[in-house]
Specification:
heterodimer; A: about 375 residues; four-stranded antiparallel beta sheet; about 40% strand; B: about 100 residues; Ubiquitin-like (UB roll); five-stranded mixed beta sheet; about 25% helix; globular
Chain lengths: ~375, ~100
């Protein structure tokens, strides 16, 4: 019988939530790495027992942990993320040039085919790759050396590369997103990158239609349709049908189009989920109600999903990497909140149940669907 | 033998309990002690000193013999009592965060 394993990264450790395919009874395992910030954990699609985890603190810096037994045991692997050459400068909050400095790993994206190959998105924004299971990491400097690099600037959370999406049909193509530079695409395995921000419009920057400078919060893709991407931008939910060459707004009837997470149903490429957040000055859900919004039309028309979610006195946020879907026949949807709840829906969002309510603030949620 | 006390998180990471005892070749300095520590426990590389700059992380402190040695040169000799093994070299995670 199939089962699912939910990998949860929090401000104070990692948790593994497991259930059989019914997804009714959950076992909570953790904390792993208690006291450390766990920005992201993700399993290898090629070997689900192989899991990578980003572990850090302000005291002792960055570590990468690797498990080869589904998260039962872990071993620290390489944690040296050195930019290639002289890294140069990006723009600081006050507009002055600021040297590129490594701070942490935000996102780990294991290869679709090789358990030893992983891409890592880091702050200050750059992409690294390991081909030896995390022992050593090499930067793909073509991204940072994109001519616009000196104009990139940090968002409030830092200048982080937080999203990495691999095209399952074309191993040379990868999409990434950076706050607050925008989205980029490589078509040659990471040697060169193109800014793909045409159609994004950000009123908070001097030129709302600039090539770079957009605060992209997250991007999602359905693997059957790799040219179609959905984006939750700082403000606006966007869609592209041509691999990012142009974007159109699909915020439609959302109560607010500010938010962080966005994800796509495992079997319905036009079914999209977001969690609207009131505003960039009030990072919590509107009206004290935790509502996931679902579009079954690829955007523009959205319905509120509220069954099982608190509809009064709720003031949590849902961070950008804290939503995921499983691939069971009835798609499961999962998300974690800044208040430490992890909610699960085993009916594609129609109803929700908390798996666990009182974890530390949830930074990331990933799901493995196991045979 | 040089005695080193690690902060709790790094004892967990290095899978040690209590003090660590190290052989240090040549002059006993902060740098040579940390080099020996990282050679024995490679998982600690980068946690005390930045990989690239080799500078002490801001929230890591080095104490010995009731003195804060954090701002001394990493190549300065450590107190004789540390070199003789009668006093430990303390690596501290600074109290920070409110």
């Amino acid at each position: 019988m199939s089962s699912v394993r939910v990998l949860v990264g929090t401000r104070k450790g990692a948790f593994l939530l497991t259930a059989d395919g019914k997804r009714e009874q959950w076992e909570v395992n953790g904390p792993h790495f208690a006291g450390w910030e766990m920005y992201h954990l993700k399993g290898s699609p090629a070997d689900p027992n192989r899991i990578y985890a980003s572990q850090s603190t302000g005291w002792f810096g960055q570590l990468i942990q690797r498990s080869s037994d589904g998260g039962k045991t872990w071993e620290p692997v390489g944690n040296k993320f050195a930019y290639e050459g002289v890294p140069g400068t990006h723009q600081w909050y006050d507009g002055t040039p600021h040297p590129w400095e490594f701070k942490r790993v935000w996102h780990l994206e294991p290869s679709l085919t090789d358990p030893d190959t992983v891409l890592a998105g880091v702050e200050d924004a750059a992409i690294f790759r390991t081909n030896d299971g995390g022992k050593s990491w090499q930067e793909l400097p073509g991204l940072r050396e994109h001519g616009s690099g000196p104009r990139w600037q940090p968002g409030a959370g830092g200048m982080c590369l937080h999203t990495i999406i691999q095209d399952p049909g074309n191993p040379q193509r990868v999409y990434i997103a950076i706050s607050a530079a925008g989205a980029f695409r490589t078509d040659d395995g990471g040697k060169t990158w193109k800014a793909i921000n045409q159609g994004l419009r950000s009123q908070q920057i001097p030129d709302p239609n600039a090539e770079v400078g957009h605060c992209v919060h997250h991007v999602a893709m359905h693997p059957s349709r790799p040219n179609v991407l959905f984006m939750q931008k700082h403000w606006d939910v966007m869609r592209t049908d041509n691999a990012g060459d142009t974007w159109q707004e699909v915020s439609g009837n959302l109560p607010t189009d500010f938010g962080f997470v966005i994800d796509v149903h495992a079997h319905q490429p036009d079914t999209v989920y977001v969690v609207p957040i009131k505003s960039d000055s009030e990072h919590f859900v509107p009206d004290g109600k935790l509502r996931v919004y679902r579009s079954r039309t690829g955007g523009n028309e959205w319905e509120a999903l509220t069954k099982g979610l608190p509809q009064s006195n709720c003031y949590v946020n849902v961070f950008r990497d804290a939503m995921a879907v499983d691939s069971l026949d009835e798609c499961g949807v999962y998300f974690g909140t800044s208040g430490g709840q992890v909610y699960a829906s085993r009916d594609a969002g129609d109803s929700w149940t908390p798996i666990v309510r009182d974890l530390p603030s949830v930074l990331s949620v990933e799901v493995q669907t196991l045979p | 033998m040089i005695r080193v006390v690690l902060p709790a998180h790094l004892r967990t990471l290095a899978q040690v309990t209590g003090e660590v005892q190290l052989e240090v070749q040549g002059p006993v300095t902060t740098c040579s002690v940390l080099d020996a520590l990282e050679a024995r426990y490679p998982m600690l590389e980068g946690t005390l000193r930045d990989h690239i700059t080799r500078k002490r992380r801001p929230f890591v402190r080095f104490f010995a013999c009731a003195e804060d040695l954090s701002h001394e040169s990493p190549d300065a000799p450590l107190p004789d009592a540390v070199a003789a093994g009668s006093e430990p070299f303390l690596i501290i995670g600074a109290i920070a965060g409110g």
